[in-house]
Backbone:
């Protein structure tokens, strides 16, 4: 058999980068998405791997991943019994062990060339690198309905309170230092679509700056998100995140000494004038 670009198929060396792809009933979009992702990662000069996380999809999503042909980029499936994109990404991140990790959507709406920029920044010491469709260098082709656009504007306003300074919390393209991602994922409690806000807020609380990068983003038809079905849940999730992570007034430090108490004056040294 001819050697693969990574000599051993990239599978005997542990991956430097692992990418989690949450997938729910994605039999139509996942095959094309995985092909693109694997092709991109196979061209990178280091081993990488993909973890697809399925929530009991009722279509062929799991079967597609289980039968994914072996290649230079290993693709494995993990099931997540807790429903929701947030629960799936959390489960996937906790399965990783690589120095650098990330996640992206099954539709690969974010152009994968942004992986180069993300990894370059992680290698230079950034710990959280996320795609932002609001970045002035981004190119965005959006076909969302007016209702969804209105909801998104409202969501951004709320998210701005929880993660100040981040212009787009919801782009499904986020990369991290692996140790940080696993620590933060273990704390995540938001199972649904608002989980990105909790994730970024916890990274910021850890002292890690969120570095936003420009992306080329194309809305791909077939979204799992429905404003009618998901809006109420998102409002609840945002409320819960706020309750958990809101800045609490610091307890006033107790004075070391009671203010009314003053040390007794030292007795005059004997013999002083
Ligand atoms: N495992 C899992 N993945 C989900 C769930 N909901 C959404 N996703 C995945 O999250 C990603 C983004 O979803 P998408 O429908 O494209 O949302 P949109 O881009 O915000 O419209 C896709 O890979 C979906 O399959 C879920 O409940 N479970
Ligand atoms: Mg999408």
Residues:
């Amino acid at each position: 058999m001819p050697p693969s670009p990574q000599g051993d198929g990239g599978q005997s060396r542990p991956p430097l980068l692992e990418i989690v792809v949450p997938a729910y009933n994605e039999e139509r979009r996942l095959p094309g998405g995985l092909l693109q992702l694997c092709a991109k990662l196979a061209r990178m000069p280091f081993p990488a791997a993909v973890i697809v996380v399925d929530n009991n999809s009722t279509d062929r999503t799991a079967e597609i991943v289980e039968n994914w042909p072996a290649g230079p980029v290993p693709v494995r499936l993990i099931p997540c019994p807790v429903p929701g994109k947030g629960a799936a990404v959390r489960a996937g991140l906790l399965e990783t062990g690589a120095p650098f990790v990330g996640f992206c959507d099954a539709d690969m709406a974010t152009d994968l060339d942004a992986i180069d920029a993300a990894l370059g920044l992680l290698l230079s010491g950034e710990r959280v690198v996320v795609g932002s469709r609001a970045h002035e260098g981004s190119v965005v082709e959006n076909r969302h309905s007016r209702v969804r656009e209105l909801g998104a504007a409202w969501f951004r306003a709320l998210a701005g309170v929880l993660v100040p300074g981040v212009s787009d919390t919801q782009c499904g393209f986020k990369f991290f230092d692996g140790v940080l991602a696993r620590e933060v994922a273990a704390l995540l409690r938001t199972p649904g679509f608002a989980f990105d806000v909790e994730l970024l807020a916890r990274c910021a609380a850890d002292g890690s700056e969120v570095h936003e990068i420009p992306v080329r983003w194309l809305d791909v038809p077939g979204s799992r998100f429905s404003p009618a079905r998901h809006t109420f849940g998102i409002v609840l999730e945002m409320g819960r995140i706020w309750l958990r992570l809101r800045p609490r007034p610091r307890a006033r430090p107790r004075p070391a000494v009671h203010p009314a108490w003053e040390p007794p004056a030292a007795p005059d040294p004997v013999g002083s004038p």
